[in-house]
Amino acid sequence: RKEVEQDPGPFNVPEGATVAFNCTYSNSASQSFFWYRQDCRKEPKLLMSVYSSGNEDGRFTAQLNRASQYISLLIRDSKLSDSATYLCVVNAMDSSYKLIFGSGTRLLVRP
Amino acid sequence: NAGVTQTPKFQVLKTGQSMTLQCAQDMNHNSMYWYRQDPGMGLRLIYYSASEGTTDKGEVPNGYNVSRLNKREFSLRLESAAPSQTSVYFCASSGGQNEQYFGPGTRLTVT
Q: Mean pLDDT for each consecutive 10-residue tract of chain B (111 residues)?
């Protein structure tokens, strides 16, 4: 089983739609959780950290479910500029310095 | 504030040639990382340096060596390039909260 698993997509949605991605992780002891965004042929960029109580940043909401070991990202009112690949990230089992990146979920927002 | 910088941006090597990829960060971060990203594979950790003076192997270290030259700089060396090392290489750095910040990447082709 992969340490971090994501649906590769693509999710193809119209502008203004609400879209949600889930990600599952295998290490029940993980403490650090993030969502990164990666545009085509660019470096990954931190979108948001994910806290136990859930957190929101504008149109983006992240949730953590420790019992089921999954993380979610909700994007409201999708914009064309949200088209990208979204990477789910969890700290590694053997070192808090290391992060494990999921392969990403691709989002396409159409006019 | 430049963040994480990498040189070169592009490189073409012949099989058996050697080269060093350079990375520098100006955020006073303790930890630095080298990843490779191949289509459909996600980011894979090659080596990391938790702090100045230490380096450790990641998931795919074979064929690579690293040097943590000082707190700012972390270089990756390919001693004898192989076509399997054709990839995009990202350097990242991390401060105290585990999130990592990435450089723009080096696109390497080995023929």
A: 92 97 96 93 92 93 96 97 97 88 97 96
